[in-house]
Design brief:
Layout (H helix, E strand, L loop, with lengths): L1 E24 H4 L3 H11 L4 H8 L3 H13 L3 E3 L6 E3 L1 H18 L3 E5 L5 E3 L18 E2 L17 H8 L7 H6 E7 L4 E12 L11 E4 L12 E17 L6 H13 L6 H18 L3 E5 L4 E3 L16 E2 L28 E18 H4 L8 E2 L3
Length: about 375
């Protein structure tokens, strides 16, 4: 399955939500605030007496809480609690609590992409949430695809992957990271960020080798899960009639008929040059007598001898954006007919090609949003098919 790099990226505006991102710990959340305070106090080196002084609680209450923490393997202590310390497990939890407090104090903000459903780094500028679609008809504004309520759940969609990819948690081991959960607090207003459609899923086979298109194999990168959203697009496929003439025959056309008759009467009466002209004329005529229609995709500039099958083709009535107005001019080239048996290799430098559009077909695709809005990848295949 392929995506073709467009000659000019298409600018689109994507709805986003501003959201605060905070983190918690499953294990810490199972403890009371007082237990967490004891772990924090011991972690920074304070003793039983300091805990008693700060909290002003009955020593018996403090000892009962510490006894519970010992029971679950977070503390070690002497019988009278004069010497109390964190176990290795308790020390790890202390480090997690420190990291959570430090991160949450920064009050980081992110964006929720309302089309792909993925989290993104907060960026400026963000478009006005009161944008009027009808005043800017030439611009493409994508529709919101997400179910907002799902982002009230713990660690929604790619939030944990996003967290560890974009923020420094190098001091945590894998077990501590597994214990972390993400919470998002999004604003209700919708904003817009400008993005680009740089690649479009398109046929990869049977295209002319001279199209010079950059094809990206998306077979391995396509990961559709339950949270995947789709963008419904439409584009055009043109059926084109191709006409061909050999320019070297132009000045000889008035005598072709005479030469043909002479060859029938007595082939020894004509020269080898005349025979070459007649053979070239016959190749030209054989090509013209064929149904020389081909198919042209004006969005990508690809040409096909047979009507191609499009990835994610979909016959539904839904439509988010139409890309029919984005067209590349058709450039006829000899590579388009290089594999035609009627044409000799020597003819390729002597061709005059003309065309006319004889039909148009609408192609509709249900494209995964992560594919439509993906950024350029390093491994790009150059060629037509």
């Amino acid at each position: 399955m392929y995506a073709v790099k467009l000659a000019e990226p298409i600018k689109v505006f994507v709805p986003v939500l501003k959201a605060g991102i905070r983190i918690t710990s499953d294990q810490a959340d199972e403890l009371s605030q007082f237990s967490q305070f004891i772990i924090f106090s011991l972690g920074i080196g304070e003793k039983f007496g300091e805990v008693e002084r700060v909290t002003r609680l009955d020593p018996k209450v403090i000892k009962e809480e510490m006894a519970y923490l010992m029971k679950i393997g977070l503390l070690t202590s002497t019988a009278n609690f004069t010497e109390t310390d964190l176990t290795s497990h308790g020390r790890e939890l202390f480090e997690v609590i420190l990291t959570i407090d430090s991160f949450n104090e920064r009050e980081e903000q992110v964006l929720i992409n309302c089309v792909t459903g993925q989290l993104e780094l907060y960026q400026e500028p963000i478009g006005d949430c009161k944008h009027n679609h009808f005043e800017q008809e030439e611009e493409i504004y994508l529709k919101e695809k997400i179910v907002r309520e799902l982002y009230q759940n713990q660690s929604p969609f790619n939030s944990k992957e996003f967290l560890f990819e974009h923020y420094d948690f190098s001091g945590m081991n894998e077990g501590q990271k597994e214990d972390i959960q993400v919470a998002l607090y999004y604003e209700q207003d919708t904003y817009y960020v400008e993005k680009e459609i740089a690649f479009i899923p398109s046929p990869g086979g049977h295209a002319s080798d001279s199209d010079g298109q950059q094809l990206l194999d998306i077979t391995d990168t396509l990961q559709q899960d339950d949270g995947e959203s789709f963008v419904y697009i439409s584009r055009e496929l043109h059926e084109v009639k191709l006409d061909l003439e050999l320019e070297s025959l132009d000045k000889h056309r008035p005598v072709i008929d005479t030469l043909s008759k002479l060859r029938v009467f007595d082939h020894e009466l004509i020269s080898s040059k005349s025979i070459e002209l007649l053979e070239a004329f016959e190749r030209e005529r054989a090509f013209k007598e064929k149904q020389n229609n081909f198919y042209y995709d004006p969005l990508t500039g690809q040409s096909f001898w047979e009507s191609p099958l499009y990835p994610f083709e979909h016959e539904g009535k839904w439509l988010d954006i139409s890309l029919s107005s984005y067209r590349q001019p058709l450039k006829l080239h000899t590579g388009l007919i290089a594999d035609q048996e009627e044409i000799a290799v020597s003819d390729l430098k002597d061709l005059r090609l003309e065309h006319s559009i004889v039909g148009k077909k609408e192609v509709r695709q249900r494209v995964p949003s992560s594919i439509l809005l993906m950024k350029e990848k390093p491994a790009v295949i150059t060629g037509g098919g």
